Amino acid sequence: MQTFLQDFRYSLRQLIKNPGFALTAVLSLALGIGATVSVFSVIYGVLLHPFPYADVERIGNLSIQDARGDIFDASFTGPELRELREVHAFESFATWRLGPLTLTGEELPENVSAYYGIGSTFPTLGVPPLLGRNLGLSDSPDGQEPQPVVVLHYRFWQRHFRGDPAILGKTLELEHKKYTIIGVTRPNFTAGWGTDVYLPEEIGGIRYAGVLVKLRPGVSWAAANAELTPLLRRFAQEQPDNFPKTFRVDIRSLTFETTQNMGGTLYLLFAAVAMLLAIGCGNVSILLLARGTARQHEFAVRAAVGASSFRIVRQLLTESLLLAVTGTGLGILLAYRLLALIIAWLPKHVFPPDVSIGINAPVMFFSTALALLTAVLFGLIPALQMAKPEISQVMQSNSSKAAGSVRGKRLHGTLVAAQIALTLVLLTAAATAIQSFVRLTRVPLGYDTHNVLSVDIPLQESVYTTWQARVN
Q: Among 119, 174, 278, 343, whose Cα sits 20 to 30 Å from the Cα of 366?
């Protein structure tokens, strides 16, 4: 332990004496690890695992594709939904219908976003609530008025009720109608974009603009598409205005839309930061090899006065690990800061606002292990070379000559060439992305956007019952 502390103190003094070398190595690792971990965490949260539903791999959007290849959600009436229940490929299905409501009965009214779901919606998603229970089949029985119950989204519960754990059983007044609060969702529940409250709805005569289906175990998407096609073609014949003239059933995974909108951008960004991590590790390896070469005289003197080969190797490895641990620690801290910035900068309405995005532990461990391995490996190479230095030759030569005679020139040159190549690729990709962004900002919209505002005016159906009243 005493000798390790001696090595540590000596390593620390060496790094303080050479701040340029130490800062360059530490910042190279920190930037690479921080950028890689934060960007992949966003990719994992937004693209790979955005929905907390049970058996999410069996849940998909019931969508259709028209003759032009455009994909959109199919919409269905209540009677059509009842027929969909009989499709053998489906274990269950969920519907959603979003609508604005007004919170009444308090000093000031408040606009809330409501999500209406039929009885099988919450059981299909399979996410247990944080408090109380979910909406179920008994809350919206066929042919009967839905029960006056409501489930609060975690965000609304925190904002409006300040996270009161005794909220169950109390009432919430919406549009002058009282609802009993029966549950609170988990924080990352993503059903309904920005939804505040969830209400039961009986399958009626309205059209449902979206349907999620859950396949039975062992049923493929292709098999479900094939079974559903005859039924949807009959629906199209009965109500031709609700379907395109030519279409095919194309049930898509839940992540399809997000992947289409942002997948290419995020994967390109991840490739860029992965190259940044490779460049950072390359920086550290080149610096360690060069510094090891420059210290041949020092280690020759230490060997001459009796330092063992093991002690020299251990000293260099201690310095390498000190650099790696410092750079890794700063990289992890930077990853948390960068992740918060990226989440704030991501465009809204591209993915559900309640998606849980956090630091991805496997990627963090991989990046950390890569940084440590790089430091150990390229700290070990000069250490092994100098463990048994040719003392007489090194002592008689000047430092520049010693530097020129170091073994491993080929490895050093390969690392430099690889680093330059990666840097050129990264710069080219960045320049292309910037050019594309500049082009997008200059696309003419066909009208003058100066001093133009877009304003939503909520007009509730229960208050303004006719179109003329809403116009007035």
A: 343
